[in-house]
Amino acid sequence: GRHGIDNEKETMRRELFIRLFNHVLQSKWDEMKRI
């Protein structure tokens, strides 16, 4: 019951974090390529 919902929230948070991390990485990578 409850545990499943908490698990879903945890997964969503992790996906958001990974997406944000990838976005930052991509930005830094683009900056490095320009130099």
From TrEMBL:
Would you say which domain of life the source belongs to?
A: Eukaryota
Protein name per the record: Uncharacterized protein
Supply the source organism for this entry.
Answer: Bracon brevicornis
